[in-house]
Write a structure and sequence with these properties.
Blueprint lengths: L3 H16 L18 H13 L2 H10 L4 H12 L4 H10 L11 H19 L7 H11 L8 H4 L4 E4 L5 E2 L4 E4 L1 H8 L13 H8 L1
Parallel strand pairs: 1-3
Antiparallel strand pairs: 1-2
Length: about 210
Amino acid sequence: MEDMWSVVASERGALADDLAGLDDAAWDTRSLCEKWTVRDAVAHMIATAEMTPPKFAGKMIASGFDFQKMTAREIADKREADPAAELKHLRAVRDRRTGPPGPTTSWLGETIVHAEDVRRPLGLSRTYPMDAVVAVADFYRGSNILIGSKKRIAGVTLKATDTDWSHGTGPAAEGPMLSLLLAMTGRTSALADLAGPGVETLQSQS
């Protein structure tokens, strides 16, 4: 991909447009991240967009090097007084090209996966750029950092049914590329979109 940050910006904007049509109560819907509401997930996306490596280091130190504690503090800090203010904040960070330490692909992944964490429980759908979804899947498939994708998909052949992509060895799990990405990042609801004997293995390892 020539410019992942431009895709990040586009996807943040698309999510903001989708959320603009919701009433306030919808923001309290439980996201695919079981401990977060839609509003929490959006606050997390804002926090990630406004993070920088120096800020990240300082906040980790202040949180006693407890990543989950730091994340909870950031969500609480970025939750605005009401959904309208939070939506405005999301639009304000649309074009930011900052984030915690890590490759740009990881922040592209955060944007796509967390957007689905929000959209799916709300019954919203989005067709993401396929090259972006593939790039993120190629990144996550070899990483156990934080998300544990490499371990989760071990011993399974993942095969996309809507693009020419596959990975792994063992019993197959086939389905849409986006659903494969969500499954490898621990979103078990996406397993319902997949077929094949490998789905049971993915379920047991999620």
